[in-house]
Amino acid sequence: MSRVVNLDGPGKARNQLMRTSAEIIRHLSQKSELDEEACDMAALLVYCLREIDAGIDDSALAWEKRDYWVKAEQFRSRWAWAGKSAAELNEVVVHGAWEQLPMVLAGLFPHFTDIKIAKLTRSPSLWRGAYRRLLQEQVPVQGA
Questions:
Q1: What is the share, in percent, of the chain residues with pLDDT greater than 70?
Q2: Which residue, 25, 39, 14, is CA-closest to 112?
Q3: Does a structural domain hold residue 18?
Q4: Is residue 4 part of a domain?
Q5: Minimum mean pLDDT range among 23-32, 56-65, 84-93, 98-107
Q6: In a domain, 64, yes or no
Q7: Burial class (CB in 10 A: 0-12, 13-18, 19+), 135
Q8: How far, in Å, CA of 73 to CA of 79, rounded?
Q9: Of 114, 98, 85, which is closest to residue 38 (Cα–Cα)?
Q10: End-to-end CA gap in the chain
């Protein structure tokens, strides 16, 4: 029997999320005013950063299985920015502190400099409604 190779691993997912995030950052930086679409884009960026952060341990575990402990820790520390940025951006979006959005986006730019965007390929339907979903996450459930 031959070896099974998973082509949809955490690295591929992380690359797709990084590409999506880079496009959203590009869109947001070109916006002259804060509108409903900008709120949705910022919320989707929170989701993307969360997913990137969630996939880091999966990738690091692959190194640890091969006893590359130092490499796994280096990987985790190199990607630690994703979880921190997701939390910071979540605070901006949920609390409506939109005046801080440009500073948060400026902090994200260095992590996306190696992604070249010749053509924007993500559809606006991707982020439509993300702001409402993010706000609904924050509402505590009654009786819980």
A1: 91
A2: 25
A3: yes
A4: no
A5: 56-65
A6: yes
A7: middle
A8: 10
A9: 98
A10: 50
The residue with greater pLDDT, 129 or 117, is: 129
- Measured distance CA(41)–CA(58) in Å, rounded: 26
Contact assessment for residue 45 and residue 24, using Cβ atoms and an 8 Å cutoff? yes
Return the pLDDT at 139.
65
Range of the domain at 90: 10-132
Q: Distance between CA 125 and CA 104 in Å, rounded?
A: 24
Q: Is the dihedral of CA 30, 117, 5, 61 positive or negative?
A: negative
Output the 3-class SS for 63-92: HHHCCCHHHHHHHHHHCHHHHHHHHHHHHH
Tens digit of pLDDT for each residue in 44-92? 999 999 999 999 988 888 888 888 889 989 999 999 999 999 999 999 9
Domain presence at residue 3: no
